[in-house]
Design goal:
Blueprint lengths: L6 H15 L6 E5 L11 E7 L17 E7 L2 E7 L10 H13 L4 E10 L9 E10 L25 H13 L4 E9 L7 H10 L3 E3 L3 H9 L3 E11 L10 H25 L4
Helix pairs in contact: 1-2, 2-5, 3-6
């Protein structure tokens, strides 16, 4: 069941956002991961609405997620950004984790850019690297589409290209122009909130994962069910357990994203500027 986070609820929530900040139809919607909220500072003509003022949006409980909708202009294009997300490890249903995407779609967004902080499974990664998400593995064992089919969504959405190849090409071109080294790889989404054991990291590597995190997957599934184009990035904040020589902490994650956020912000802004008009 959608648990009250389906299409009708998304319509009501989208209308609240329109009424309060007058958000126009965006050229792109952006979801910002842990510590990556600095991108929101690049948005001009900003209108901000706290999650606490939006029905159906709980306030984030995780440090590094400010919990606000930011609408305005980025790279000369209209955007709406969510600074903070809802994780299932906070006790939320998968349908709530994907609910913001339903709201963004109701606001008119057809292109979604997702960012996250992730641990590096690939041994050649270094903290601060940016990974273009080529594909993902859903090891959360939850799906936000379970239940009755929501209006406007596919019952069995095709996931052979969850991340748009055309958008990936744009991203690579912008990265070259900005002299940013852009890796690509597969993101594994786990439920969390504990970090992975050494044995689990070895398993992830065998399964073909390059990075691991605790978000993003439910959002992408909902986006694809609604026919949205998706582009995704992981900021590699640390090497995963068994690869890193030191224990992993959330403080380390935030410290690394703070350093890398300016590079990530410039990259996303450049991509938004190059998006084709739809």
């Amino acid at each position: 069941m959608s648990g009250g986070y389906g299409t009708e609820a998304a319509k009501r929530t989208a209308q609240v956002i329109r009424d309060r900040i007058g958000a126009s139809v965006p050229d792109a919607a952006i979801i910002l991961g842990s510590g990556l909220g600095r991108l929101a500072d690049r948005i001009t003509n900003r209108k901000v609405l706290s999650y606490s003022d939006i029905p159906g949006f709980p306030s984030p409980t995780v440090v590094g997620h400010s919990g606000a909708v930011v609408a305005g202009t980025l790279g000369g294009r209209r955007v709406i950004a969510l600074s903070g997300r809802f994780h299932m490890y906070e006790g939320h249903e998968a349908s709530l984790a994907g609910f913001p995407v339903r709201v963004l779609h109701q606001l008119g967004a057809q292109t979604l850019i997702v960012t996250n902080a992730a641990g590096g499974v690939r041994r050649t990664f270094s903290p601060g690297d940016i990974m273009l998400i080529r594909d993902h593995i859903n090891l959360m064992f939850r799906n936000p589409l379970i239940g009755l089919v929501e209006a406007g969504e596919e019952r069995f959405p095709d996931m052979s290209e969850p991340y748009s190849l055309a958008l990936q090409q744009i991203a690579r071109g912008v990265a070259r122009a900005q002299s940013v080294t852009l890796h690509d790889g597969v993101y594994a989404g786990l439920l969390g909130p504990s970090y992975e054991t050494q044995a689990e990291v070895k398993m992830l590597a065998l399964l073909g994962a390059d990075a691991v995190g605790m978000s993003t997957v439910p959002e992408v599934i909902v986006a694809r069910a609604r026919g949205m184009r998706v582009l995704g990035f992981s900021c590699i904040t640390n090497l995963a357990s068994g690869i890193s020589a030191t224990p992993i902490t959330h403080a380390e994650v935030l410290e690394t994203t703070l350093v890398a956020s300016e590079k990530m912000s410039a990259l996303v802004a450049g991509i938004v500027e190059k998006l084709p008009v739809r």
